[in-house]
Give the backbone structure.
Amino acid sequence: MHRLKLSKLFTKTLREPPRDEVAVNAKLLEQGGFIFKNSAGVYSFLPLGWRVAQNIINIVKKEMNQIDGQEVFMPALIEKKFMEASGRWEVDIGFKVVSQNELNSKVQDSSFKFQDSFVLGWTHEEVITAIVAKYINSYRDLPFATYQIQTKFRNEPRAKSGLLRGREFMMKDLYSFHVSEEDLLNYYQKVKDAYFKIFNRCDLKSIYTVAAGGDFTLSDTHEFQVLSDVGEDTIAICLKCEYAENSELNRLKAGDACPKCGEPVTFKKSVEVGNIFPLGTKYAEAFNLYFTDHAGNKKPVVMGSYGIGIGRLMATIVELHNDQKGIIWPESVAPFRVQLIVLDDKFDEGNKLYTNLQASGIEVLYDDRHDKTAGERFADADLIGCPVRLVVSEKTLKYDSVEIKKRQESKNELVGLQNIIGML
Ligand code: ATP
Ligand code: MG
């Protein structure tokens, strides 16, 4: 779908941002009709928001495919035995789904009945490793990488920042499998480069940040942090060479010399949009994922795991690209390239331009509403934030032209109706 008429769109923009939201991304995305809050930390993506999410997903998929990631789709329901094998059943971030027996409930009718307990997946190392163990035997089967874009569930205590921290959220999770630590680190660099490309294409400057490894990694892990006061993380960063460490490491104080270039470091708030973990052999050992090397020795496979939050990425884009009037989408992820507004009842001319734009493959959101004032239409265009606004009115038609304005600029100009498509 490359076109949409606002008169037909079932969602509506809101006059005011929702009062129960504090984060800018939540306010603007709900006010613009991109998302709907069903519960705290639980959101629906509406037509405009789903288009943005799909654009982001396509950017992510393209870069994952470029580094030979093989796309799969795993279940959200993860049986207890998998999480027990890794010792993560007890991690209390997951939502547990228990059987009627276990609940000892008197409720007779329930849509969900299970013979054993499950957790709604909050990450998928266990699931993928159990799958891979069925297929991998020899060093000839390695290396490879596989990923999915799928819904994760986490019982986040602080789910109040819109799409930045959901209790249900979409994640791209990539897992890689190697014969050695050296081979893993080689692929790790490729993922790092792919991540920079993804965030750049989303018009976000990301900082590669050394982070704590939790308890199961080989060495340091790395996060991609975007500087923003809305972020829940704090990083120590050298503004000269951009070396950065998560403050949770507790290794640097403000003013300390950067370990790389010696300049003093400063502390900044930031959002973690992605991270990459060398996992080592922990999961391979738990799920009996061994391979036979050249010499015929059995060895555990060395793994890496790499995440990007799709909704968090979308929220971060909004947090960094907005003004008092609304969102300013980067062209790469915008719901539509163009928002077309018709004034003075010039609908015949508007319809014609709409048809021509579509025919030229330009994605256009057409404000053909009869019941809105010019002010309301302009306000909605600014709120929704498509990169280009076109206006057809009595005045522009007098010059056989259309008014063009970029969302992030204040100046507008008239362009001949003959030239507008070429220009776009
Ligand atoms: P955080 O420290 O912010 O909770 P995390 O370390 O738990 O993140 P991972 O488990 O590694 O994150 O998940 C990979 C990616 O998924 C993160 O980099 C982030 O982009 C995204 N993500 C994690 N938790 C959430 C959430 N609750 N809502 C939205 N996105 C999330
Ligand atoms: Mg977390």
